[in-house]
Design goal:
- This is SnoaL-like domain-containing protein.
- The structure is a single chain.
- By secondary structure, the protein is of the alpha+beta class.
- The protein contains three helices and six strands, in the order H-H-E-E-H-E-E-E-E.
- It has one domain (4-115): Nuclear Transport Factor 2, Chain: A (Roll).
- 24% of the residues lie in helices and 42% in strands.
Length: 131
């Protein structure tokens, strides 16, 4: 079984390659995931597949993990460089965000946005500018 840092690195690499199947293989069937570009959350692999497909039809996000910080709660905070462009290549956001992962038995159970006060709110600031 891969260690936590390897699982997280593989998930980001798969996302950046747009390899949905490889990313979903690292997650539980009932994974919880934020819809950063739309607001709210989705539950389950097929819901993530649908969400990412919509997101990538409008935005070109790229995320690189900078460092991982395991928390006493068992969750892992990942400081991430996030670059978001529209499909024409215009820069919409370039900054650092924190993703919070829950991993159990070698699979991602949940990912949350650290600065998300209300998980039912609209899109995160990086996706607020529509193309």
């Amino acid at each position: 079984m891969a260690d936590t840092s390897t699982i997280i690195a593989q998930a980001y690499a798969a996302f950046n390659r747009r390899d949905i199947d490889a990313a979903l293989a690292l997650m539980t069937h009932d994974v919880s995931w934020p819809r950063a570009s739309e607001g709210g959350k989705v539950i389950g692999k097929e819901a993530i597949r649908a969400y990412w497909t919509r997101q990538w039809s409008e935005f070109d996000p790229h995320v690189d993990p900078l460092d991982l910080s395991p928390q006493e709660s068992g969750r892992i905070h990942v400081r991430v460089h996030q670059l978001v462009k529209n499909l024409q290549g215009d820069l919409l956001a370039d900054g650092v965000v924190v993703h919070v992962f829950t991993i159990a038995e070698g699979l991602i159970v949940a990912m949350d946005l650290e600065d998300e006060a209300d998980p039912n709110a609209g899109p995160s600031a990086a996706f607020a500018h529509r193309s």
